[in-house]
Amino acid sequence: MSVFLKNVVDLFTNPVMMCAVFSWIFAQIIKLFTSPLHLKDNSVGNFLVGSGGMPSSHSAAVCATCISCGLLYGFGSTYFAISGVLAVVVMRDAAGVRRESGKQAAVINRVTQEMNKKKGFDYELLKELLGHTPLQVFAGAVLGTAMAFICQLWLFPIIFPGAFPVGL
Length: 168
Known about the structure:
Mean pLDDT: 81
Distance between the termini: 32 Å
Number of strands: 0
Shape: elongated
Number of helices: 7
Helix content: over 70%
Largest sheet: none
C-alpha cells in the first residue's frame, strides 16, 4: 500500500474524527425534529448542512473530539488539552458572536424588507439563524459527550475489535 493511500485510510478510520463526524451528523438530523420553524425555504438539504438550531452541531462535534481524545489518549494528554481549548472557543463563539450576528441580521432584514417595499428594491435578505442559545450549545455539548462514550467504548470496539485502545 502506498504512503498516500495509507494516509487516506488512516484519515477515514481515525476514531476521533469518525466520532466527531457522527456527532455532527446526528445533531443535524435531530434538528429536523426540534427546529421545524427554521425550514422557511422547505429545503431539508440546506437545513441539514446549515448552522443554528437545537442542538448545536458545532458543540457536539468539538465535545465529541475532546472527550474522545481524553478516552483514547488520557485526560492529561496534550491532545485532550488542545481539543478542550478548541471546544471552549467554538462553544463560546456559537453562543456569543455568531448569535449576536444573527440578531443584527434580523434587524437589517427588517430594514431591507421596508426598502424593498417602499423603494422597489430587490435586495436579498441575510441569513438570520447563525448562532445558538446557551441551551442549544449545552445540548450539543451533552450530545457530543454522550457520542464520544458510545463511539469509543461501545460502537468502535464492535466494528473494529482491537484496533483502538481505550484509555479507561
